[in-house]
Amino acid sequence: MDGYRTRTMNEIAKDEVSAALPAEAEMRAAVERRDAAFDNRFVYGVVTTGVYCLPSCASRAARPENRRYFATPAAAVAAGFRACRRCRPAAPGAEFEVLARVARSIEERVDERLTLAELGREAGLSPARLQKKFKAAFGLSPKAYQDGLRRGRFRGALRAGADVTGAIFDAGYGSTSRVYESAARHLGMSPGAYRAGGRGETIHYACRETALGPLLMAATRRGVCFVQFGDDRASLLGRLRDEFPEATLAASAGEPGPELDAWIEALDAYLAAAAPRPELPLDLRGTAFQLAVWRCLLGVREGEVLSYGELAERLGRPQAARAVAAACAANRVGVLVPCHRVLRAGGELGGYRWGIARKRALLDLERRRQGAS
Questions:
Q1: 104-143 pLDDT tens trace
Q2: Residue 156 and residue 154: Cα distance in Å, rounded?
Q3: How far apart are CA 354 and CA 309, in angstroms?
Q4: For tag attachment on the chain, is the N or C end more exposed, with fewer CB atoms within 10 Å?
Q5: Residue 43: enclosing H or E segment and its boundaries?
Q6: pLDDT tens-digit profile of 43-55?
Q7: Active-site residue among 57, 84, 87, 339?
Q8: How much is the pTM?
Q9: What is the dihedral of CA 347, 348, 354, 360, to 10 degrees?
């Protein structure tokens, strides 16, 4: 399978369903013991064969590093895998496969000017119907998907050391102006700084042991860009370095950087039920859809919970519940962007990037606060 295609289609699949997957260690163990109890919870693809299987498949299990896990067969198909003929996992409908082919066609021609009419002819759909069906399946329009691929190619070229102008045109942009106009929104820094892995940028951070375990907060001059729980300070700093490998990371000590010492102490006090949730400036970076979800989450009141479907309704995208779930899972700013307030349909806790126990603790904290008010 083509590496570039696999990566980008896996991103689509992850955007749809990642929050619904069991823990990876749990899935690995289920595949090793061929546990049929997990057959309705996930499927796994094998990158060396291009096939996806049920956990109970009797075929010889692929090496763990060659597996990719998906919550649904549709997500596996979106990533370019085909159904195993031995275990015969349920395949998605023919319409979804058509849409997946359209997505792959956009990938293969990411640097071309594509119209809805042209893509509609390929799919056998009218432009309006293709737009509607594609957005329902993947949570974004064909144009937004192509734009995302271009940004991904642009970022990759910058990371690899390409000059900015060359990266812009290689990614399919017709001019430099559009890239620079949207750079702060999509990269969080200038293209030149992003190419250098954040070189020239200073990101201040602070780490505290909180009621919910070690927590690291980091901020640019625009606001908080990173709030994550972890096992220890070293692993949290590692995550921050992965995001900005060439940036200058500085422990917060007040001016001239953001007032992180006060900010993280305010958040720590909130987690200990000793103060209200702090309202801090945020530097959010993501796709247009992710930003829409995160901004909508900022309007969910403390003590209120809703399902992924209800959040999709608030966005005016009622068929994009799975994409909403993935945007919640991609949130880098825990607690301040309250993705813990979103549950699965039926009231189940669902996934949480920093563990179900922390999600439950945050919800319990908010219920107690509401009950005391």
A1: 888 777 777 788 898 988 888 898 888 888 877 666 688 8
A2: 5
A3: 22
A4: C
A5: strand 43-46
A6: 999 988 889 999 9
A7: 339
A8: 0.50
A9: 70
